[in-house]
Amino acid sequence: MFDITLRPLKDGLFDPCCKYIPAFVTPSHVTGFAFIFGLLSCYSISVTHNNNKLPLAFWAFNRSLDCLDGALARHRGTASDLGGFLDLLSDFIIYSLLPIAIAQGFEAAGSHVWIAVAVLEATFHVNNFILFYIAAIAEKLSKVEDKGDVSKGKTKELTSVMMRPALMEGMESGLMFTVMLAYPSKVQALSWTMAGLVAIGILQRTLWVVKALG
Question: Do 198 and 124 touch, CB atoms closer than 8 A?
Fold first, then answer.
């Protein structure tokens, strides 16, 4: 919901850092390090139970590096579809693993907790299908000769594929996962809450698809 609005703030924070990064460090290296820190956050929260300081630190590194890789690619003029693919792939893997890892590390987790996490993961699955169907539609529309009709649906993209704005986007997801890591005992309520917000986003994007194809 706020990804595009907050883009200038993110750029202002991370763009100046790019000039201090050694030339031998590529954006793909940064993406790789972000992925490693994300995995470490998942692993550490799954084994440390309610001791969440280390998982939160790893998560902070993951989020910071995830912002930095794209900024570095744009700064050097090396942005590519492959880089965007690897960035999104790593994000989707970490986002899928994190709720499971938090539930695994929560000592009192029972079937009620796992049901909430399962529903959350299901909303991720449906939302991802819609996102990439929208990307396919956007690619198809971009080839249409009537530029006037196509321009009506365009948005300022922050990623390598079109992601139609909705209630739950990257910033909101990152915030929800941060709260989960900070309060792992609340993973059930937070999973249901996030699943509801993602479901609203699914509805928003579905209505856009119906309108675009109707």
Answer: yes
The C-alpha atoms of residue 124 and residue 118 are separated, in whole angstroms, by: 10
Tokens of 71: 């900024």
Global confidence as pTM: 0.82
Which residue positions in the chain have pLDDT lower than 70?
1-6, 49-50, 107-109, 143-163
Which residues have CB under 8 Å from 105's CB, separation 6+?
Answer: 45, 46, 47, 48, 49, 50, 184
In the chain, what are the helix, strand and coil shares in percent, each to the nearest 5? Answer: 75, 0, 25
φ, ψ at 87 (rounded to 5°): -65, -50
Q: Is 59 helix (H, G, I), strand (E, B) or coil?
A: helix
Nearest 10 degrees: Cα torsion 152, 157, 161, 164: -60
